[in-house]
Design a protein that fits this description.
Low-confidence stretches: 1-9, 177-229, 390-396, 398-414, 563-567, 780-787
Number of strands: 8
Strand content: under 5%
Structural class: mainly alpha
Shape: elongated
Number of helices: 43
Length: 852
Amino acid sequence: MSFSQDGTAASAPPTWDRFATRPRVLDGSTRLLLVLAPKGSGRMRFARHWLRTLGGGILEYSPPANRHHAELVASIHSRLQNDARLRIALVALPDQDWSELQDRIDCETVELAELLLDRAEVGTWLAARRGGLEDASLPTADALYDLAGGWRNALEALDNRALIALSSRTGAPLPDAATLDLPGHGINADGPGAAAASTTAAASTAAASTSTRRSAARRPPVAATALPTDPVEAVVTGLRTWLRAADPDRRLARMAFLPVLDDSVWRMLADGGQAPPSCRELQAAGLAVTGLDGNVRTPKVIRQAVVRSLRTTHDAGQDHAWVRMVLDAGIAAGHGREVLDAVEEHHWWKPLLDVLAAGRWAELLAQNPVRLRRAMERAPRALLRESSLAAVGVELLAALMGGVDLVAGGHGTGEGYREDAAAARLTELAEGLAHQADGLALTVGLVEVYTLRHRGHVKEAADRAAALRPVIRAADDSAAASRLLCGMVEGECALQLLLAGRDREAFEAFRSCLSYGLRGNAPQVTSAAAAHLALITAMDGDSEQTRQWLRLYGLQAALLPWGEPVMGRAARLARAQLAFEALDIEELGRILAELPPLPDHHTLWPAHASLAARHQVLTGSPMGGYGLISSLQQARKSAANPLAVRLLEAAKWFAALSAGRFDPPRLRPEELGAEGPLLDIWLKAATGDLEAATARARALAWQEGASARSRFGARVMQIALEGHRELPPEVLRELAGNHRSGGALIDLLGLWQTPAHRGAVGDALGLAPEERARLDAIWYTRWRGQSPRPQLTTRELAVLAGIARGLGRAELAAQEHVSVNTVKAQAASLYRKLGVSSREEAVQAAREWGFL
């Protein structure tokens, strides 16, 4: 690759072919070339190539704000008039009026857009520049274009950094040392120091080649220390100067600081009463390029220069209003990461905080929660305290974003609601803003509900959540808040209603939350709502509806950029409940293994604890499940809410009955949800009150308003308690129909206790061998006629355990340190109490009574 004496490549600039299509460029009729472009765009190289192509001439350079503009115009005109063969290339900025020169002299004008490389030209230029060198560490043409746009000098600086870093690391020779225009070696050779006014450019090609070889010989070896520390300096000075001249009102610069611009951004700005510059204007100014995704993007190097330009001419009031509007539009268009990058680059914290307070925090949190958390950590604390965020309370945002604690107080303060001054202030503020029904009102209401819950005011938080729901609907109807924000606030209200034991209201609120998410195309909202709806229906015993909600959850969770783990706690618990009802011990254990080994402090910890206890029951350790619930009830008294009280008490009762403990629960059966009445029937039957158990089962099986699952379970218990030797065909048909319409395997345990019924029930219901094996493997306390549960002594229990292990009388006597006759007497007493006459019958009866 040969060079001319001024250090410019002898080959044509990458954009030359576009310019050469003009009819008068190469026919010699044009004697003046006017290049109006900033430093760093390759303007000097372009002008020199034009002169060299036509056989020589003069290169003129007009410094910014030239005081002798009129004299320069007159001088150029005079010289062209006096020498008919002279050609002049004038490089200047659009800070002067060049119309007189253009009117008086026949000239061609080249502007910035014709000097900037497009994506394809960058690829061609880069391939020729590297001379076939390939390495995975070198940036691709697309990567360079996205960083620097079509700015020639910035592209060279970035590529030089990569080439020199590669050479320093591997020792490999550079493609051609002369092509690396490092600082001091040509990269900044664009301006008065490189081509002063009236510099002659008529040297011959041979002289140029000789000069290049001598220059290369004198050039010192390229070392890593020559690496430019800031490639943006390749264009920043010229671009800032040019922006002051070409963009005096900063329409372009203020728009171009946002990295991504698409139709949504333009629309929102236009709706806000602004007249944003068009994409074509930004691209012509070199401030934006079209990305591979079709959106208009501001290259990073250029954005940094724009930011510096804005800082030098700061108008706080005007900038704040404009920046806030652009940030708002960018967030609404889904470019949260790019918005936060821009905010950090030029410290636009106050506009960001204002946008967050207006409700846009919901979109940012949904788009990139980790990035938002980092931005909040970096925001000036003093500014955070002074912003409107502090007025509405930052506890919610702090918890969501990672712990920026700006509000005094903690979880479960122990104060009563009437004595809690902080809670009272939040409620007063929320009530005062409720009439606005906008993003700020929703944010304040959400902070209030969230804070009340975490300060232990569960009932009051649920009441405030119910009061906030009409405000959400009004904000949605008037389009005063985004549907994403409406959905997130509705979801928090629904969760609080669920914790307060108001299941029906919570279900409807989650349905509304789902609707907001679907209409607002917000999968993070719809997936969370579907997961909680699945959990509610699972706890209510509606297995089929639970599966439908889980299918919807799966479809929506697949659309999340961070996947299921972030949003999936409720969905996992719903799946675990289905596994419990299907007696699938292996699946239930696998799901619980994905959660913390012991219930943590997640909002849904009561559901987790309940299922963990039930898993222990199914695996043969009912007292282990009973102990787990008892310890949690004791340890978490202050954190108990109606949902926790209900779920823990139901699980504890289930474990107690399975272990043969017949203590009544602290709550009435009806207060324990759909499972409570069924457990009450089980208690009556296990304690021998078969008449009361049968009557209760019959009443529940036909009770209007009871869930289908409750009615089916009660009907199964009724049939089992009636003591049929053989189940009539009509009863089997009834069971089969009810089971197909939503019954669960666990409901059949009452019938499965009678061996004679197992084959008929299994065949009528079409149970698979695996399902029959699950029913056979589950043990629990069962009822046996009118007889109460046998009361066995410690010695008899020890003999029973030995019999179950297959030990003989002599082995039992040695183990217990008694005589064989004593063991014989204890075994006889055991057989009498169990009503059996053999070892095998004793083991079977003991399992039915729950002793083994």
